[in-house]
Amino acid sequence: MAVTLASSLCQAISEFSALWLDSFDQATLPIDTIYVLLILAETSGYIPTQTPLAETASQWHHHARSFIHGEQHGKFLSADNLVEARVRLLKLGAEDAVNLVPKLHLVKPGEVWIS
Alpha-carbon distance 18 to 90, whole Å? Predict the structure, then answer.
């Protein structure tokens, strides 16, 4: 059975929720969890894999802000992007991830395309 993007998104939301609530020990999810997840997935690919963890959060924030403000065009979102964002967020660690996420929903983008 082929995995659809819809089922991948459902799985990504579930995995992000578990990561956020259990691994990062947060009491509640971000109010706009789907938006945050899509922005993280859309922009995680702009950060080179060899980027030191100490610099990853600030680079991710920079790319997310550029995307949000339309200065950087996003690629079409895919199931692979969702998985990559979750893995990268996990590697980033609780403190940096928890500090990064609130910065993402200050401004809403016009559109996030899902392929």
Answer: 11
Task: Give the C-alpha separation, 4 to 25, whole Å.
Answer: 30
d(CA 86, CA 9): 12
Q: What tokens appear for 53 in the block? A: 């963890």
At 60-69, the pLDDT tens digits run 998 888 888 7
Contact present, 36 and 101 (Cβ < 8 Å): yes
The C-alpha torsion from 56 through 58 and 60 to 64, rounded to 10°, is 180
Query: How many Å apart are CA 104 and CA 102, to the nearest integer?
Result: 5
Query: pTM (2 decimals)?
Result: 0.75
The strand pairing partners of 77, in sequence order, are 114
Angle at 37 between CA 53 and CA 108, to 5 degrees: 110
The DSSP H or E segment spanning 70 is none
pLDDT tens-digit readout, 16-68:
899 999 999 999 988 888 888 888 888 888 888 899 988 999 999 988 888 88
